[in-house]
Amino acid sequence: MSCPDENTLLxxxxxxxxxxxxxxxxxxxxxxxxxRGVLAALGGxxxxxxxxxxxxxxxxxxxxxxxxxxLLGEGGMGRVHAAHDPELDRKVALKLLNLARLGEDSLAQxxxxxxxxxxxxxxxxxxxxxxxxxxxxxQGQLFxxxxxxxxGTLRRWLAEKPRPRREIVAxxxxxxxxxxxxxxxxITHRDFKPDNVLLTRDGQVRITDFGLANAAAGWTPPREPxxxxxxxxxxxxxxxxxxxLAYAAPEQLRGERGDARSDQFAFCVALHEALHGQxxxxxxxxxxxxxxxxxxxxxxxxxDVPSWLKAVVRRGLSVEPSRRFExxxxxxxxxxxxxxxxxxxxxTAVLAGGLVGLGFLALGPSAATPRETCQGSERHLAxxxxxxVRESTHQAFLRTGxxxxxxxxxxxxxxxxxxxxxxxxxxxxxxxxxxxxxxQPEAVMGLRMTCLDQQLGxxxxxxxxLQGADARTVERGFGLGKALGGVARCADVRTLQEAVxxxxxxxxxxxxxxVRSELARANAELLAGHTPEGLRIRPR
Length: 540
Known about the structure:
Blueprint: H1 6-14, H2 19-30, H3 33-43, E1 62-63, E2 66-75, E3 78-85, E4 90-97, H4 107-122, E5 132-138, E6 141-147, H5 154-160, H6 165-184, E7 197-199, E8 205-207, H7 210-215, H8 229-236, H9 250-253, H10 260-276, H11 286-294, H12 307-316, H13 328-357, H14 369-373, H15 387-399, H16 405-435, H17 442-466, H18 471-477, H19 480-483, H20 493-498, H21 506-527, H22 531-536
Antiparallel strand pairs: 1-2, 2-3, 3-4, 4-6, 5-6, 7-8
Helix pairs in contact: 1-3, 3-8, 6-10, 6-13, 10-12, 12-13, 12-17, 15-16, 16-17, 16-18, 17-21
């Protein structure tokens, strides 16, 4: 069973679930420390309002001009009802906000912020952002009136059944477009997560709760001890301006105000979770999560997720905001460009396979389609060593203020340029040996590609470490060419065949992959001159 969403956990904590739901959640949380941490935090909140309170509306009740049709769901900061707008004759989503935790005098201030948000959002008509129609006050509570999206949340869509990777990426590309559009207006979400991404009945993405995420933006939580239960509770619950604990960026967990790059971090946490079945960083409390993030202890990743996609996500998960993509639009561009390239290669491969089945090889060397199947290997370097990463690394070297920083960077760039060319050639050659010339079987190509994928993962970790350049990195940069291994071993078929095969047991294999990942990260830190940091890394 996947982790219950926040509404289910809140219902469990408040005793609102039916007996079957209560039993299901209880069985799950027994073996899930993350959900136990969330429940522990929820237990520290004030008791939920009684069933007769103004927030629980009955069908037929009026809130302003809107007629309530029924309850759709509820979370830590409010209840969502389906309602009818008689003036425009349309169904809408009406969200009553519980802003009690913001303080007695904050209602007017929160309404002012929401109204400013509504005016700004009114300027935006974007296919992947749920429209915010109205803001008002009802019996001492604020309400938002939004576009009603009836296809459920992205979390529910992901949990319904295994989804093909291309469908997952396609929906996250839509979400990235929505976030980029709002960022262009100066609006940040600060609580992006799968629960705040809705789907229409035909599968189109609508991001929601921008107004809610910013309603509390002016509130500063009290500074409490690191081990304070109430401090963790406030971070765990949706609606606090820092966002939801599991998707918050490091700067938000430290109590800082989130910005567009914090949204980017949350987006990549959600994308990692969708691709690999778990969030990237372990931890049930703010302190545990932040420690995992600072150590970059990313959980084991699935082997069938391509290296270019892992690299894009890992960059968005960088602890330092400056190491992430320069904007949500840039991240979206990487996802779109690489996904498009993957689709083109896949289509070419299908075509090539069909032509071979028809005796294509007899047509002679003038036919170029099989060779085209193996073109474009350089696309895998996007987000790992491309123009953007190169410039970010350059600036990191210059920020050290070392007089030889420029010369050291040029040495590093020359080494990585050469390594990238060698890797691209090796990748294309491995493909052509099987798909074009028929010299090697598919199994051998698989071994070579796995080796090259591992090499690319190591380069990705190295370039992340280099973007944290300091004086030691500058000094080390001149010798990087001698220390960095090459890709020639990935063409040594005999050695590859004699290597120990990965464990068949999925659990054991995940542990082995996690150890290899930690060792690769330690080696990257050593190559970047961060010797103490590298030596502190201990494979789990």
